[in-house]
Amino acid sequence: MRAALQVRGVRKAYELHGRTLPVLADIDLDLEPGQFVSIVGASGCGKSTLLRLIAGLEGDYAGQIQIDGVPITGPGLERGIVFQDHRLLPWLTVADNVRIALLNRPITAEAAASLVREHLALVGLQGFETAYPHQLSGGMAQRAAIARALINDPKVLLLDEPFGALDALTRIRLQGELQRIWLRNRSAMLMVTHDVREAVYLSDLVIVMGGSPGRIVSRARVPLPHPRDRALAELREIEEEILSQLIGPADAPANPVVAATTAA
Amino acid sequence: MTVPARIWTVVRSLLIPAALLGTWELLSRGGAAATYAFVPLRQVATAARTALSNGELIGNLIASAEHACLGLVAGGLAGLLLGACLGASRICDRILGPLFHGLRQVPLLGLAPLIGLSFGNGAGAKLLVIALAAFYPVALATAGGVRNVERAHLELGRALTLDRRQVFRHILLPAAAPAIASGFLQALAFAWLATIGSELLFTASAGLGSFMQQAEANGRMEMVIVGITAIALVGLAMNGLVIRAVHWLLPWHAVEQK
Fold first, then answer.
1. How much is the pTM?
2. What are the structural domains, with CATH classification, of chain B?
3. CB B159 to CB A104 under 8 A?
């Protein structure tokens, strides 16, 4: 089976005050169609940068990123993205915020309207079509953002700490929701998160990244069927294993930029 | 708000004007000289009735409002266009910005002689003055509004593969809309001021400025006061209309402010 997303030997560096700071070193990553993969790692390990490279929001890297065998050349509708902040446009209603993702799809207004309806129902927001973003709770706004990212039926959905800004209870509820949505929609998912428990609960594969420069340290399979019970003992074991890798002996500063500025 | 509370609000807002009017009336009873400076209210009321019944006031008022609206639309649209360019394009800001900010420093009255020389002192010159008065605030507000768009929203536009035109229409313009709206509100006040000013400055045709100038020439103080009152009322009414239009056009903004 051809990988939905293939990342080969990706390297990236920033120029800072005339010095070259490597942020990503030789990243290899495969995402099969319908697979759920998470990337965990300390702040500044480059995991968000990697996601932004795949989204096409940042360029200037070495290596190859392919979607379905086609190298990416910038942002594209075959990749959906959910940011940590919901990024709903405050001047549009919920329905229009979802519809805006269809601007460059050659479909009729009726087809667009029915897609919007369908995806709002998928995320459980029916009845809120005409609400404005500031009238929604954080969790509801993030659901709308997920609907917007899924409406183009992307091959890969990229999630950049999607629940990082939510309170603990809403986060747990939305993790369950995301699992349900994924099981129905079956886009491949690539999620960046700080929350190891979240990653283990949702993913087929958890990639652990380390810093300076950002690289993949290990990969942990989570060979349990979906949907899962959050309380499974196996999940706890894998979580503990990953945590011990992350917190373990390597206590060096993960982010060379931060290290350099604090030293100065 | 309950009905009595609303009535109380209205009463409260009328307290100071009523006191001023009372003082005015008292002063007007202090002899012949005082009667000339402070025209008795009854005389003003009679004058207002006359001016209203012979159509003179309404005709001039409509003429002035027309000038103001025309100037506001022309100047406002030009301001919108330039402001959008200044805000959205750095090159545009570099090339046109200094000229714009330099010219903006010259008060409109200071331009009157120049405009008089090049455009005569007829309808064209008047419209130009009013349009210029509306142009600056709208251009400034639009440029600021477009410049202050959230980077995150622009990035969303990129992720959704929107082209420049779509980004402008769906992100930049709505993001700038509240700023543009307050620019237009300010422009309205300036345009109204410029309307009356230009009617007083340039050759008289119909308009409240000419109406007052004529009254002044005839020594009709009470008619001057009728004119001033009409100017204030029309200004208030137009301001109210624009605020309503803004609420209707930007429902999300109106709700956000509540």
1. 0.80
2. 55-257 (1.10.3720.10)
3. no
Q: What is the 3-state secondary structure (H, E, C) of B80-128?
A: HHHHHHHHHCHHHHHHHHHHHHHHHCCCHHHHHHHHHHHHCCCHHHHHH
Q: In whole angstroms, what is the distance from residue B225 CA to residue A93 CA?
A: 49
Is the pLDDT score of A198 beyond 50?
yes
Residues in B closer than 8 angstroms to A58, CB to CB, are none
CA B83 – CA B77 distance, rounded (Å)? 10
The token pair at B192 is 């109204």
The CATH class of the A33-46+72-263 domain is alpha beta
Residue pLDDT, tens place only, B13-43: 899 989 998 998 888 887 777 777 788 888 8
The C-alpha atoms of residue B214 and residue B233 are separated, in whole angstroms, by 20
Numbered residues of chain B with Cβ closer than 8 Å to any chain A Cβ: 152-153, 155-156, 158-163, 166, 170-171, 174-175, 177, 250-253, 255-256
CB pair distance less than 8 Å for B160 and A77: yes
Distance between CA atoms of residues A148 and A116, nearest Å: 8
Task: Provide, as residue numbers in chain A, all residues whose Cβ is less than 8 Å from the Cβ of B251.
Answer: 132
Helices (H) and strands (E) in chain A, counts: 8, 10
